[in-house]
Amino acid sequence: MKEKILVTGGTGYIGSHTTVELQNAGYEVVIIDNLSNSNESVIDGIEAISGIRPVFVKGDCTDINTLRKLFEDNPGIKGIINFAASKAVGESVQKPLLYYRNNLNTLINLLELMPEFGVKGIVFSSSCTVYGEPDQNPIDETAPIKPATSPYGNTKQISEEIIEDYVKSGAPIKSILLRYFNPIGAHPSALIGELPLGVPQNLVPYLTQTAAGIRKELTVFGDDYNTPDGSCIRDYIDVVDLAKAHVIAMKRMLENNDTDSVEIFNLGTGNGLSVLQLINAFEEATGVPVPHKIGERRAGDIEKIWADPKKANEVLGWKAQADIKDTMANAWKWQCHVTEKK
Ligand code: WQD
């Protein structure tokens, strides 16, 4: 009997890749998504890759009645992976209430319904943004949580606290908090990938759209930072590596009875790459030039952050595998696929 998992936000970038890996690992997946930042055609891509079509419910997780009906219609859900959230840092500064309402009400609704329907555990999509500007790198899970620099980042910090408090109150559930560094790339099949709506805020989709001629030029937001080449450093993690970590976390949560009720893991490669190094990796991997210029720093950017993934490597038995050039080649393949479809 296949364990049934609910993936909220499952037609999104990381949610879709995680659904593929869950299905490849033998889990049955139910997706709920309101399609506010994704497209139902992603379900076709998931099916084309894994040969299995997940159950799809179009709905808004901020409505508890929608969620309750989903659990009633899909009995036997044992675990949840919660991706459903608004995630644009800049937008969150303009529309804080949308972010607090969407991201926090979604989580609270899920937590409230879990005991009612016998759901054992929830994997939460958190972010290295909770660390703010680290005092030192690489950064592990014991690093201090810094005051959030955006409502988006604050929703991640508050969400972690809500889960901790709920478990401490005696709720019969477990949780694993996964703090992602910078997810990039696309499935090697080029059948699913990142689908940013409008002008991409994140580096890699903007970079691939520039390489494809959709954007005229990539602006590197500052080259006067205290880093070897002056541009910011991040820990770019391949989205398929990231998806696989969720499957391992879910298995651990559902099958391993002697773990803590709440566990936290940093998911990164452990290597920091600058913006200019990433552009170079793309050009070397694809042979496609990326027209770019140096511009002003972007408000709110931190200078450098990369993970110490030791805990995830040793406790989860998970390690990022992808070579950055392969990740860049997959990102480009996906961009070409999307551009052709237009
Ligand atoms: C990476 C680097 C930019 C665009 C954010 C969130 C994080 C996570 C991922 C949601 C930075 C530089 C970017 C461009 C550039 N959340 N850059 N030109 O800001 O590290 O992380 O997105 O998904 O929680 O905080 O990612 O991709 O926006 O930027 O030079 O056109 O690329 O300055 O140094 P970031 P990013």
From TrEMBL:
Superkingdom in the source lineage: Bacteria
EC number(s) recorded for this UniProt protein: 5.1.3.2
Keywords: Isomerase
The UniProt record lists the keyword Isomerase: yes
Name of the protein: UDP-glucose 4-epimerase GalE
Gene (name only): galE
